[in-house]
Input
Amino acid sequence: MSKTATLEIDGKKHEFPLITGTENEVAIDIKTLRAATGGVTTIDPGYKNTGSCESAITFLNGEEGILRYRGYAIEDLAEKADFLEVAYLLIFGDLPTTEQLEKFHNDIKEESHVDEDVKKIIEAFPKSAHPMGVLSSLTSALTAFNPSSVNVDSEEDMYKAIVKILGKFPVLVAWTMRKSQGQPLNYGSKNLGYVENILKMMFEKPNEDYKQNDILLNALDKLLILHADHEQNCSTSTVRMVGSSHASLFASLSSGISALWGPLHGGANQAVLEMLEAIKEDGGDTKKFMAKAKDKEDPFRLMGFGHRVYKNFDPRAKIIKVAADEVLGDLGVEDPVLDIAKGLASEALSDEYFVKRKLYPNVDFYSGIIYRAMGIPVEMFTVMFALGRLPGWIAQWKEMRLRKEPIGRPRQVYIGETHREFTPLEKR
Ligand code: ACO
Output
């Protein structure tokens, strides 16, 4: 393949280098475009064709349905690793040794408490507040309780900030859920595994000993791994963008949580369950809702279908579909909503509209069903996504800072009024 791309504007040719990634992805490097062309820019709403960075963290190939973290297949990681190992892998680049993992976990445990005054902030929220709003605010509030900004040139400082947020975030997640349920705010136990401890903090009742359920533990571990990173999606790009102004790690993460909240992104898992419930309430006629989704006059979309990058089966959806069957089977849960989900999926997979547009079930189509079987309230589903995505956001933020990327500041094509004479108020 040639090493340059030629662009011709008004008869003048400009050459731009092509860069090739390790998986042979080719990009036109347009860093010099504006200088070379006297200010010509590109336009690409939704960044469908724009690479915002070079990254060594996650590779995904939407056509072939491949997802790898640091070179390891998601299928292998979901089956053979645990969430903390995957977090270490994403953040530091390699799978940890036993000693590294133990130290990592111990250091996180040392940080697994939050300032008691954070409870006052939680108390100020109404019980009805959406947990994503609460989580985003609390994560931002951590900046106030941990004011020193990270010296990104110090490996030690960077490590401390990372274990701090990995220690405190699950407490915020659990407290967010407990607040919405009127449960007392608790602490976990240093004797438990990372994910085990999260379950204890979420589900422990004040008047009984908490008993671990291995089925739930395995299911949650897998779900968190599947959500741990997904290259330059909306929330991750937000974290990198906010962090590029050298805003703190916690502030950057807080903005990522807000981005994840939207129903076209992480909020889809809540939207899927609400949609399935609505179909059930309406009598369970999946065909009616399929028709609505295809009707261009109707804003309804089949939530949990389609993906910006996967134009083949989302590999995470394949793993999660099996997990959903297992969890529900093991727990003995009969869920009519799962039958509706299966019906919708099989209809969509053979429907011309969906086939033509390559709209397959995505990861969120099944995750909500598992969360529901685990007893997690619907409003908490996207919070669980955020919990899983945390290591990915941290890894991407760290990479962006260590690569000393410039502040994110896109251009635009102005389409507003040209210069107008000002009219004084009394003459308008
Ligand atoms: N139901 C019905 N039609 C759909 C759906 C859907 N879920 N998704 C896309 N389409 C149609 C669009 O109407 C469009 O049709 P057209 O070409 O006739 O105009 C075509 O498919 C392409 O859709 P776009 O919106 O252009 O695709 P884009 O890549 O921008 O959007 C997205 C991807 C946002 C995920 C979209 O498929 C969607 O809204 N899905 C439902 C929400 C969802 O499940 N989000 C979770 C994504 S996964 C995640 O964030 C973890």
Observations:
- Residues 155-181 form the longest helix (27 residues).
- The chain has a mean pLDDT of 93.
